[in-house]
């Protein structure tokens, strides 16, 4: 037992002096963690004195062929992650080479800076680089989450790993991963060895993220193992969903080696499957034949185009075509419904924001806005709610059909007319009322000669004839001034000379705007009464239609607010964001920090406090080239677990 403890101390601290380690164990009364604390405190004094916090580098390297001792992984469980002992327990992963790197950085700052400048020219535009050559700017403050260095188009790696690392249950699984020696020795396949190596590198990376004294870590060692999994990781932007699929597959296979099962294909006890995978049932009809099948899913894909929010996306994914008993055996050739039969504790949605443009022969990004809630209730998509949901879908269909009819009626009122230009009918009646109420123009004849009244007396009957005919008013109202001008132009010279100049050459010019030329009080009262009554009736019709549409819209919005359908809440845990176009861009993540009760933004080496408002602006889409690409929800039970353990 003593030798085993010594070996573990060597592994943890990097100290090879057995006598020194034995003395530390004796001073700690055989308590491994007390000994680790004693040794690491001693080691930490030097770098603490010179405040050197060097940039993570190659020494934070391979963990292949070694595993973290069980006692240390226990110290890094969520309950202990903020304790100084847990941090110190993994501080030696940065020692003694880490401290040597710190001293080198302190002694040769100019050399490090020139190397940094040399590498800067190789950086891609998707990278965020904010490293400051000042050593103190690299030092971690308290237990604030650490960032992750972008080593060349690897922002996708950081976004996914950070969202997984902040799941205490997943973090616990990774840090506690171990394989019996006989399993390690019997694993001969290249794939198996690679998966184990990757798990061990991830374990080491997670330990550093908990225990490092720096603001960010270097994931190079873990990334090296992923290089071969992608076609050209250095040259092209990696797809988050592709990477996450690959990552979960590797981790699933690695955990499968640690699970004792009778059948190699039995993954029911695999912790990765239990945490991230669920099942759904598909029922449908095809060419008159019914079918039913159960499938497993890890990340559920959702189309974005044509939908306003996440629930609409899910509804569109769950129902395709028409499917009911009345039509299944008749004209409908295809239709299906999907129902979740088992939801995983961590539910991930892939938002399909890329589509292939056939004419251009290249992919394009979909920038349309898509809203998603902080809490989503999954009851309406569960098989156990099938009967109730089908009834509600029928009611929803009926309400939408009724609303479509009402909206068509309302449109006839709001876009009235037979020509290309349409206007709201209440406004048109109001305009006519205003026209009728305008004071008629008065043309005053001269008292010096009776001849001046001749053209006016000749013109007046023609205008009265026009006004007396309802259709004539509409068809020839614009010719009144032309008629008067025509009479004046064709009068005799004597008549012209005897007509005095008037302030306005025509009735239309006698007022500031259009007004009736001739209208009696009786006509004015009759028209005003009719127009006002019609306008009031039409406005009431419009109000009734709008109120009916609003009531139906509210019924549709509240259709699934039934308390019976709010029993399975999922809380938003992380949002992976992509900014750019289909072939290039940058990824970062928003992750909810339960202990701090706030959203944090993980952008490569930078981890900053954020807000739901900022998340909305960056993630919903529609405003600029940034939008959510992947949503990670956790069940309410997991959410409470996270809150309780930090």
Automatic annotation (TrEMBL):
Residues 43-127, 487-518 are annotated as: Disordered. One of its GO terms (biological process) is protein deubiquitination. Keywords: Coiled coil, Hydrolase, Isopeptide bond, Nucleus, Protease, Thiol protease, Ubl conjugation, Ubl conjugation pathway. It catalyses: Thiol-dependent hydrolysis of ester, thioester, amide, peptide and isopeptide bonds formed by the C-terminal Gly of ubiquitin (a 76-residue protein attached to proteins as an intracellular targeting signal). It is an enzyme of class 3 (hydrolase). Gene3D superfamilies: Cysteine proteinases, DNA helicase RuvA subunit, C-terminal domain. Its EC number is 3.4.19.12. Residues 68-82, 489-505 have a biased composition (Polar residues). The keyword Plastid does not apply. GO terms for molecular function: cysteine-type deubiquitinase activity; proteasome binding. PANTHER family: UBIQUITIN CARBOXYL-TERMINAL HYDROLASE, UBIQUITIN CARBOXYL-TERMINAL HYDROLASE 2-RELATED. Belongs to the peptidase C19 family. This is Ubiquitin carboxyl-terminal hydrolase. It comes from Podiceps cristatus (Great crested grebe).
């Amino acid at each position: 037992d003593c030798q085993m403890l010594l070996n573990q101390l060597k592994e943890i601290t990097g100290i090879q002096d057995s006598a020194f380690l034995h003395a530390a164990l004796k001073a700690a009364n055989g308590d491994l963690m007390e000994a680790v604390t004693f040794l690491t405190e001693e080691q930490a004094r030097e770098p603490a004195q010179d405040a050197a916090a060097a940039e993570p580098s190659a020494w934070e390297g391979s963990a292949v062929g070694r595993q973290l001792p069980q006692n240390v992984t226990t110290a890094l469980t969520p309950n202990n992650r903020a304790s100084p002992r847990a941090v110190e327990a993994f501080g030696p992963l940065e020692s003694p080479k880490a401290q040597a790197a710190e001293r080198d950085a302190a002694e040769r700052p100019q050399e490090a800076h020139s190397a940094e400048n040399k590498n800067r020219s190789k950086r891609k535009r998707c990278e965020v680089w904010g490293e400051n050559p000042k050593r103190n700017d690299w030092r971690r403050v308290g237990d604030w989450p650490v960032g992750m260095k972008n080593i060349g188009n690897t922002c996708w790696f950081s976004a996914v790993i950070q969202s997984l690392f902040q799941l205490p249950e997943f973090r616990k699984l990774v840090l506690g991963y171990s394989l019996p020696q006989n399993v390690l020795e019997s694993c001969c396949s290249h794939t198996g060895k690679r998966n184990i190596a990757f798990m061990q590198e991830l374990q080491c990376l997670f330990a550093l993220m908990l225990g490092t004294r720096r603001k960010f870590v270097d994931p190079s060692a873990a990334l090296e193992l992923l290089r071969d999994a992608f076609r050209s990781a250095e040259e092209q932007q990696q797809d988050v969903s592709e990477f996450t699929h690959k990552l979960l597959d590797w981790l699933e296979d690695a955990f499968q080696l640690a699970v004792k099962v009778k059948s190699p294909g039995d993954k029911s006890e695999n912790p990765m499957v239990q945490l991230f995978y669920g099942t759904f049932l598909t029922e449908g009809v095809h060419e008159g034949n019914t079918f039913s099948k159960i499938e497993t899913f890890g990340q559920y894909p959702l189309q974005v185009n044509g939908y306003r929010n996440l629930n609409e996306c899910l509804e569109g994914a769950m129902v395709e075509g028409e499917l009911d008993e009345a039509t299944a055996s008749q004209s409908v050739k295809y239709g299906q419904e999907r129902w979740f039969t088992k939801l995983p504790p961590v539910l991930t949605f892939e938002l399909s924001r890329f589509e292939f443009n056939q004419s251009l022969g290249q992919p394009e990004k979909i920038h349309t806005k898509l809203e998603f809630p902080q809490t989503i209730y999954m009851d309406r998509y569960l098989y156990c709610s099938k009967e109730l949901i089908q009834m509600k879908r029928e009611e929803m269909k009926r309400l939408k059909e009724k609303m479509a009819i009402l909206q068509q009626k309302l449109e006839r009122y709001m876009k009235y007319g037979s020509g290309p230009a349409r206007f709201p009918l209440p406004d048109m009646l109001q305009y006519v009322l205003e026209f009728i109420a305008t004071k008629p123009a008065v043309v005053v004849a001269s008292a010096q000669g009776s001849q001046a009244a001749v053209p006016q007396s000749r013109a007046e009957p023609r205008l009265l004839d026009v006004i007396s005919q309802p259709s004539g008013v509409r068809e020839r109202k614009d010719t009144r001034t032309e008629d008067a001008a025509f009479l004046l132009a064709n009068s005799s010279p004597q008549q012209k000379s005897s007509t005095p100049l008037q302030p306005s050459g025509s009735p239309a010019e006698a007022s500031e705007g259009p007004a009736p030329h001739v209208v009696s009080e009786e006509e004015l009262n009759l028209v005003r009464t009719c127009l006002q009554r019609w306008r009031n009736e039409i406005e009431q019709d419009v109000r009734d239609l709008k109120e009916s549409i609003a009531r139906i819209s509210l019924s549709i919005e509240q259709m699934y607010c039934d308390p019976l359908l709010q029993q399975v809440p999922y809380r938003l845990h992380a949002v992976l964001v992509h900014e750019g176009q289909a072939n290039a861009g940058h990824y970062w993540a928003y992750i909810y920090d339960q202990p701090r009760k706030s959203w944090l933004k993980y952008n490569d080496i930078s981890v900053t406090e954020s807000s739901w408002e900022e998340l909305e602006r960056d993630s919903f889409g529609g405003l600029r080239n940034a939008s959510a690409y992947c949503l990670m929800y956790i069940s309410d039970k997991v959410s409470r677990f996270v809150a309780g353990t930090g």
